[in-house]
Design a protein that fits this description.
It comes from Coraliomargarita algicola. This protein is 29% helix and 20% strand. With 277 residues, the protein is an alpha/beta fold. α3 crosses α4.
């Protein structure tokens, strides 16, 4: 299956990152992190950070998809970052490179945490669709590391926030035709043996790319390991229902509130959500 939801590949306007930083140069491509800092931020801070990965089926996408989420979380006191990574249409790459870049981005952010006022032990990851896969992969997969990376630096996040993630890549799953030669080591749902972090999963019940049953199975596997997995369903909603668009704005706000409360429950945020109804 190679279809990409029309809600993927969004180019969201009206949100400007505080800074950009190149985390990796590969095959002539400079890959950037778009960093949103809290208003009263100082480099001496020890802030919680979250790194988001955009959706687009490993084929297309734009980091601006998560700029609204970054701006909101920065307003709540976190350092929030949205990453560029290689995709098929722009870079001619495979899904493997997406995960390699995701791991590189996490390692870079942890290695440079002191420069950005970040607590290196409080770096989280999030993403939507294939970006949700990339985020989950940083927490669960042992393979798919860039040859130039310093693998002594952990790429594993302290928590995950996943919006309709493609976290099962087995037969009958989205993208299997593209990863079938290595799917068993590529699928987060099949690599949950290393104490995955607390995870929030947000899903539309009418998602045609990732069946509801796969989300339920993931939660059951996590809980069988004694790990936290909060699963929220949104009745009648399709893939990409959470995006910052006029049509999807009620669900953008609803999912951001749930994300906020999940992060607060882990002591990464204080107080109640500030997003408007």
């Amino acid at each position: 299956m190679t279809h990409v939801s029309s809600s993927e590949g969004l180019n969201i306007q009206g949100f400007d990152a505080s800074h950009t930083a190149v985390y990796k140069v590969v095959d002539g491509h400079s890959l950037k992190l778009h960093v949103f800092l809290p208003p009263d931020h100082a480099s001496t801070d020890q802030r919680t950070a979250i790194l988001f990965f955009f959706g687009g089926g490993w084929m297309i996408g734009n980091p601006s998809q998560f700029f609204p989420h970054c701006a909101y979380l920065a307003s709540r006191g976190m350092v929030a970052v949205s990453a560029e990574y290689r995709v098929q249409k722009q870079h001619g790459t495979s899904p493997q490179e997406c995960v390699k870049d995701g791991k590189s981005a996490m390692r870079w952010l942890r290695a440079h945490a002191a420069e950005w006022g970040i607590d290196p032990d409080k770096i989280l990851a999030g993403g939507g669709s294939a970006g949700g896969h990339v985020a989950a992969a940083t927490a669960t997969l042992e393979d798919f590391n860039e040859s130039e990376d310093d693998c002594s630096i952990s790429c594993k996040p302290a928590a995950l926030v996943l919006f309709n993630p493609v976290f099962n890549n087995g037969p009958e799953s989205y993208g299997y035709d593209r990863v079938k030669d290595y799917w068993q080591s590529f699928s987060p749902a099949h690599n949950l043996s290393t104490e995955p972090p607390p995870t929030l999963v947000l899903f539309g019940t009418q998602d045609v790319h990732v069946p509801v049953t796969m989300a339920e199975d993931y939660k059951q596997q996590m809980e069988a390991l004694g790990r936290r997995c909060d699963l929220h369903f949104y009745e009648g909603q399709p893939h990409g229902f959470f995006n910052y668009t006029e049509a999807q704005m009620p669900y953008y706000r609803a999912t951001v509130r749930v994300m906020d409360r999940f992060l607060a429950s882990l002591n990464y945020l204080d107080g109640e959500p500030t997003i408007e109804d």
